[in-house]
Each structure stands twice: as structure tokens, then as C-alpha cells.
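Practice problem: predict the structure.
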Amino acid sequence: MNLVLQGPQAAPDTLERLATLAGAARVVPLHAHALRCEDLSFSADLKARIDAAAFEAGVDACFIEAGRSLADFRLVAMDMDSTLITIECIDEIADMQGLKPQVSEITEAAMRGELDFSESLERRVALLAGLDAAALQRVYDERLRISPGGEAMLDAVRAAGLKTLLVSGGFTFFTDRLKQRLSLDAAHANVLEIANGRLTGRVIGGIVDAEEKMRTVQKICAELGIDARQAIVMGDGANDLRMMGIAGLSVAFRAKPVVRAQAGVALNFSGLDGLLTVLA
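Answer:
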């Protein structure tokens, strides 16, 4: 096993201290704020100690099998809200109704895995009934931002020949625009019902929950003629765990603790392009 240590503010002496704690046979600098510790004697106890020390130091500690690279994969599948983008779209839509605190509370509980996702989405969308649909464009124009490193990561994976999938428990209004803007290969999300220019408070068709996210990854893999183990899946919330669980590499991005605990690697401080360093 190798250990990749990186952090946007990580000082060399901090990285070296963590490398010493890991007991690496070799240490290879990757860039000014990252290094790779090679040929580790891996154990659960070592991982727990390194994870705790790294988190305290603002460093991402990613254990990964030696030799793994982007060339091992054919697909990158990403959650949208709080993963590819910095916001939770439904919370920002709710803000247009003066209901952000109520909706955000439900969103947070769902992402921690404390509420059934489908039920939580229906509850949140119902609160939006009557809102002028123009609010969606305002959220996209004024508040939606790509997460740090997102575009660099996408450029690199495309250059390496990987396909890209955006699969979201959010809404097609946003995924469709991001698909075009970022030249993504596929996108799947929920459809908000709009009548007479206003949100009805309902979703059209089935809800994209954890199971549907997993099925979507499986479907795209089948279309590409690849195994799910050739997919990298990135997410932050409990509803991402099923699709992350079938991936060859699961990446928790600034995620809830329940997701960090189950992911293959966790990027708590780095941007999305931290994936490239892990697989360098």
C-alpha cells in the first residue's frame, strides 16, 4: 500500500512528520503540498492513527494500492450538490421562499443518513410549492459554483480517456446545464414539476435515491462494456454510499462522517483535483 498525503495549505514539515509516523520505506515528493509514502506495512490501527493526525493537521491522508492510476479506470461518476458544485441547490431555491433554514435542516439530516432520502426530498420539494420557476435560473446564475479543482479534474480524466457521469438526487434543471457547460457524457437527476411558471411542490416520475444512483452507474458501465470496478465514484452524502460501494475507487469529497468512514479515499481539504494526486 501507498499513502498519499496532500493539503492545499500543508507545509513540508507537516507532511514529513506524518510520513515519519506512517513508517514509509520511501517518500516521493509529488508537488509543493503533497508527497507519497511507499511500501507501507498497512494495518487498520495505522490507518486510524494517520487519519486522526492528518485530519488534525488539515491534511488528506489517502491509502491506495501501489501502482493504481487513472489508466485503471474508464468512468468517473459524480454526485452534484456539495460534490461537483459547492451548494445544495434545493437549499438555495428554498432561500428564495424564505425557507432555507427549514429545508437545510432536512437536507443535512438526509445527507447524514438519518432520514429516508425519498421522503426527505418530497418534504423539501413540497415546501417550494408556488415559487416562481425563475428562481431556478437565479440560483444557477448567482449561487452555483463548481467545487475547487473540479474543472481541472474533469479536464484530466477526459484527457485520460475516461467518460463522465453526473448522477444527482437534485434536479435536471441544474444537471442539464452542467452537462452542457462542462461537456459531461451523461447526467441523471429528478424532474421538478412546473405549471403556469411556478413550482407545484412535486417531482415528476421516480425519485433518484441511493438505489437509483447505483442503478444509473451500473447502467452506464453496461453501456460502456465495463465492470463497475473500472468506475471512480465521488460523493458526500449517505445517499451516495450505494453507488460508491460498487466502484473500483470510492472518493468521499468533503463528506459527512458516515461517508468518510466507508469510502476508499477521502478528500476533506483538497479540491476535486486531489484525485489526480492520489492516482499520480
